[in-house]
Amino acid sequence: MRAVVIEQYGGKEKLVEREVPIPKIEDNQVLIELHATSINPIDWKLREGYLQEKLDFDFPITLGWDAAGIIKDVGADVQKFKVGDRVFARPELSRFGTYAEYTAVDENLLSHIPEEVSYEEAAAVPLAGLTARQCLVDFANIQEGDKVLVHAGSGGVGHYAIQIAKSFGAYVATTASGRNQEWVEKLGVDRFINYKEEDFANVLSDFDIVIDTLGGEIQEKSFGILKKGGRLASIVQPPDEGTMQEHEVEGAFVWLEPDGEKLAQLANLMVKGEMVSKVGHHFDFSEASLREAHELSETHHAVGKIVITI
To answer: Pfam families attached here (predicted)?
Structure first.
């Protein structure tokens, strides 16, 4: 099968197309013929070598951890899925990723793709959508009426976080650039902040939850808008213990734990029309296109998700 791999760490030019064996599945796995995958920052961070202490894989490494496609084979112990099912998943992190024509995925990480949802829309969801859900639900225990600030609401995790928070009946503020205001507001945002014109720290206060997708000074300033007992979930860096104690708030660095049942809950939101995927950029499945997609992701200015059609 065709796959785009890296054979050493480095820049986007290290992405090369190769012929590799179709994965052999375990008894608890299915073989997916991939129709789409998507780009996430973890892809190029691992490509550059930034994550090698945490993810010490042997080369060659096939990047990509969003899968959407059709089941072509099932292991002996698989019970809830069959050949021909349309499924999506965030597979376990391994050196056998989803920049490929086929991938093997554990049954417990799978969810059916609703009929109303395309492969591209589905492929955008798993890593970013589950990350947003884990921040809001599993860590922050979001409740109806909570005030939630989502940083970078036009990004992959951000636009899902807005919609998940609104599905719980939260009041949602978000930061983004003015060029993204119209479509972000259509997601249900109650307070849009053009970060180039307004400082969120000067206009917001007494918030229950902050979703930090940026880190650094933004994270530091975010503590000041939380009420006592508020929660800050960061996907980029661990919150400072001293700062949390000073403001009497809680914080966590969220590293995604994939889960098929939780992904099915997001699929249900899509069926109900409460969550959509903003696929801002499409690329085909080739060495050159993946290099271009990585370059775009590294700018931090992609609109919504970057999706690869296979």
So the answer is: ADH_N, ADH_zinc_N_2
